[in-house]
Amino acid sequence: MNHSPLYLKSRYRPLEYVVWALALTAPFLLKDHALIINEIAIVALFAVSLDLILGYTGIVSLGHAAFFGMGAYSAALFAKHVMPDPLLGLAVGITTATLLGAVCSATILRGTDLTRLMVTLGVGLILMELANKFSDLTGGADGLQGVVMGPLVGRFQFDLYGQVASIYSLLVLIVIFILMRRLVHSPFGATLMAVRDNPLRAMAVGIPVSRRLAVIYTVAAAGAGAAGALMAQTTSFASLDLFEFHRSADVMLILVIGGVGWLYGGVAGAIVFKLMQDTISSITPQYWTFWIGLFLVILVSVGRDRLIRPWRWWRGAGANL
Fold first, then answer.
1. Residue 296 is assigned to a structural domain of this protein
2. In a domain, 255, yes or no
3. What sign for the dihedral angle of Cα 116, 119, 122, 127?
4. Is residue 320 a part of any domain in this protein?
5. What is the pLDDT of residues 76-98, one digit of tens each?
6. Which of 30, 111, 121, 176 could make an S-S bridge to 115, C-beta 3.0–4.6 Å?
């Protein structure tokens, strides 16, 4: 039976099931490292959401942290003032980030990559200043404190070791990853890549370019909002740091490490980046950024495929994942 290229690309490979099964068992096998596993899951979701617009659509953004912070503050405020249920708070964080993404999508429909870069950065700076200004609500520079989360599905209380938090974040990552994977391998996803490769030709064949850009930008904002909500819920804290430029820069670096236009690149990059950050900062707290910077220079100079030659078969087998 002949299948379409989209169908073949969307089929799950056995190795994918193994990867996610190992991810879900990690909080049980590595209980002492549950907190770092939780961070990796959140950062991976954040990176995958950025890859939707950077890798699959060609939109360069330095303000993706705006949606991350919006999701975090929305979930934290909801837990503190309305209801501490994590799933409802997650839904609130996703909803507010989605609405913000829909509004901000109008800013990326015109102009060049440079103007989009500046506009997206400006949105993040504006939101950070607003969060600082309304300190009575957000806590300002001190952050939003006193956030207490209720038990997950009414049964599993968040523990100090982060085991419940890591399982929760991994499950959310898997669900959203599956949805995003299905999206990019759909006919809609094919039109996104056509827009990325040649917007004028895409427009000439009848693809509504502006509408596609607005929709995918909004979807990416929802993913970033989910990551932000998870961050606030699992740490019981939200601060202005969530809106800062370095958040957007870090997730961009993660995609450089893992590879753009490949959803698993965001996951792989998050694992490498967070493990390097955790390991190097424990050895040399003052100069860990130097070593990460050196690694990135080597990565770009030598080339990712050469540097990680033993795993090239995985990149080749999963290039369409």
1. no
2. no
3. negative
4. no
5. 999 988 999 999 999 999 999 99
6. 111
